[in-house]
Amino acid sequence: MRWRSPNCPVLLFLFFFLLCILSAGRVSGFRICSYNVQNFNVNKAANYRTLHTLTRVLSRCDISLLQHVVDTEGKAIKSLVSALNRGTDRYDEYVYQSVSSRSLGTSASDMQQYVFIYRTQTVNVTGQHQHESQLQFVRAPFVVQFQSDKTTIKDFILVPLHSDPTQAVQEIDWLYEVFVEVSEKWNNTNVMFLGDFHASCAYVTRSDRKNIRLFTDSSFSWLIGDRVDTTVTDATSCAYDRIVVHGQPFLKAIEPFSAQVFNLAKEFKLSKTAVVKVSDHFPVEVMLKSSALLLQATPLLLLLAVSVIGWCCPEL
Ligand SMILES: *[C@@H]1O[C@H](CO)[C@@H](O)[C@H](O)[C@H]1NC(C)=O
Ligand SMILES: *[C@@H]1O[C@H](CO)[C@@H](O)[C@H](O)[C@H]1NC(C)=O
């Protein structure tokens, strides 16, 4: 290979340097996670391995929604948040906080909370709202509005749902009422629904969809597909856990194809037995586009770099 210009190696170096900066920027995108932590209580929080695994999962996320938390006194969540803030991982300089719903349920033996854990450096909580209605949600959504200057969307609302499996179809459909309520309350239609909807297998079938407004109204986009398996055990393959967003502005603020299940068995090289001790569900997650100037300019910079190289080393 002959160099036509003596500056070519320098330009090539600059090009790859630029690529490195850009890909580093990508890594620091904004991640929202949802995890059914299956009866997370003080006993579970006292198990060192479980707490450690949970900390590894949650420290990847700017916002995590936990479902099936059983912690009326707040002690389990306190242990979890202090584990996150202990900063044993030297790359994680974040400070985490949490907001919890009250205990929700229809039977004293099964009361559960929704808990949001978030990074104080990347996002602010700007509103909280417990849905109270005549509809018979077993665990009515505890809705939180967030604001972040790190994302292109800025202000968005997260609506959690851990549905009751026996009435999953009705509860998912009722999310529409919650959407109307909170979007009017905060004058904001950037709404994301997330959680263990039981939206798969026997609980929600293909023919049930006509009775679910989040399916029939095309302004809602289901980001976790029907073929995804959000369960840990090999015995089941069901897309119970979902992420749904409302409207084009929110859809455009999401990194394409970033919604996925986080298989911690594979990612952390853990046995299924160890993973099941944390939960029988895997987390699901999605990335929001970063508002960083460099990232917005990515296509332009790449085009520039390629044309500079093409111009100075045409034989490359
Ligand atoms: C959180 O709110 C404060 C006060 O309005 C603001 O200065 C800060 O930039 C916000 N943080 C983020 C990450 O948006
Ligand atoms: C609601 O938001 C829209 C834009 O998002 C704005 O034009 C309108 O003035 C807002 N309405 C109220 C009552 O704040």
UniProtKB/TrEMBL annotation:
Transmembrane segments: none annotated. GO terms for molecular function: deoxyribonuclease I activity; DNA binding. It is found in: Endoplasmic reticulum. Residues 1-29 form the signal peptide. It comes from the Eukaryota. Keywords: Disulfide bond, Endonuclease, Endoplasmic reticulum, Glycoprotein, Hydrolase, Nuclease, Signal. PANTHER family: DEOXYRIBONUCLEASE, DEOXYRIBONUCLEASE-1-LIKE 1. This is Deoxyribonuclease. It comes from Parambassis ranga (Indian glassy fish).
